[in-house]
Design a protein that fits this description.
The protein is an alpha+beta fold. Helices cover about 15% and strands about 30% of the residues.
């Protein structure tokens, strides 16, 4: 197999409430199969079980003067060294002990959420990515993030209406 993209986990973040920043977990957390991050408000039976955002995206926001850090954009996993936005839907990643499949790139922000009001901007609708948890496992800072299979641009877990909504918003 040719060398595929790789990076690392910079932070693992969880929140019991939707619509706000997530708290970094120094010792990591568990991703549950077909559910998402244990203890997180966004975990459940849907196509956006685990959210990832690149540290490089957060650095761009910081360069614009925003006082933001890991978890401030409500991402479950802050990655470093891997270009998440270049990955097609259906791409599978090994993140620590879990296997995830890319189910959505970006999101529609219907209202200016709490993150927008707290941070002054929300990069997540443009640069955040979502995954379903195919295999559960422990994830902690420093763990590798490895592409194990590039997708074909589709994901069976993603409802067509989610893709239509994204396309209409762009």
């Amino acid at each position: 197999m040719e060398n595929l993209a790789a990076g690392s986990v910079r932070s693992v973040n969880v929140s019991r409430c939707k619509g706000g920043r997530k708290t970094p977990c120094a010792n990591g957390a568990t991703i549950e199969e077909n559910r998402g991050m244990a203890g997180d408000a966004h975990a459940g039976d849907w196509h956006r079980q685990v959210s990832l955002l690149a540290w490089e995206s957060i650095e761009k926001a910081r360069a614009m003067g925003l006082d933001v850090a890991e978890g401030d954009f409500a991402e479950n996993v802050t990655t470093e060294g891997i270009d998440l936005l270049s990955l097609p839907l259906g791409t599978r990643l090994r993140v620590g002990g879990a296997v995830l499949e890319l189910s959505q790139i970006g999101k529609v922000c219907h209202t200016k959420c709490a993150i927008y009001h707290l941070a002054g901007d929300c990069i997540f609708p443009r640069e955040g990515v979502f995954f379903v948890a195919l295999e559960g496992g422990e994830v902690k800072p420093g763990d590798p993030v490895q592409v194990i299979a590039l997708g074909d641009g589709t994901c069976a877990h993603t409802p067509p209406e989610a893709l239509e909504e994204l396309a209409a918003a762009r």
